[in-house]
Amino acid sequence: MKSLRNLILPAILLLSACTGLPEGIDPVSGLEKERYLGTWYEIARLDHSFEEGLSRVTAEYSLTDDGTIKVVNRGYDAQKEEWSEAVGKAKFAGDDSIGHLEVSFFGPFYSSYVIFELDQPGYQFAYVSGYNRDYLWFLSRTPEVSERQLEAFRERAREEGFDLDELIIVDQSPLPE
């Protein structure tokens, strides 16, 4: 029985770490959940296997009957010439006016979604991190942003300690007909 306990405790600690906050990064407060819903375009990201090779990436957030948020991430895989889609759910880690959510695409396993910058007057852009600095996204309500907006994102991300050497600017151009 002792060996099972030795496996369970590290697993619990590992899974709970995936829903924490990156050290020194605070989620936004004053979030209005209903205003955050809708479509967001991925402008930039630190790449991961689940998004590798995808362009034209969007995230669609909608409220469900049980109060959770349905998440539909969609991107185009040019190599396969097909769309890839992942459907998950999100719930607030605590108070729903704080930009810290837990998102799951795989059953009971959740990971942090931390909104650490948000254009709160207009809800036109957001900077999002995961539970650590290996995850970073720049989301916008429009598929294109100005160079000034992109530089402001880079500057804030550097200030927060993100390594931008592997930053990808996502191709949001329309597919050829």
From TrEMBL:
Domain of life of the native organism: Bacteria
Protein name listed in UniProt: Outer membrane lipoprotein Blc
UniProt keywords, alphabetically: Cell outer membrane, Lipid-binding, Lipoprotein, Membrane
Species per Swiss-Prot/TrEMBL record: Marinobacter salinisoli
Lipocalin/cytosolic fatty-acid binding domain residues: 33-172
Keyword Membrane: yes
Keyword Membrane: yes
Gene3D superfamilies for the chain: 2.40.128.20
InterPro entries to which the protein is assigned, alphabetical: Calycin, Lipocalin_ApoD, Lipocalin_bac, Lipocalin_Blc-like_dom, Lipocalin_CS, Lipocln_cytosolic_FA-bd_dom
Task of the protein: Involved in the storage or transport of lipids necessary for membrane maintenance under stressful conditions. Displays a binding preference for lysophospholipids.
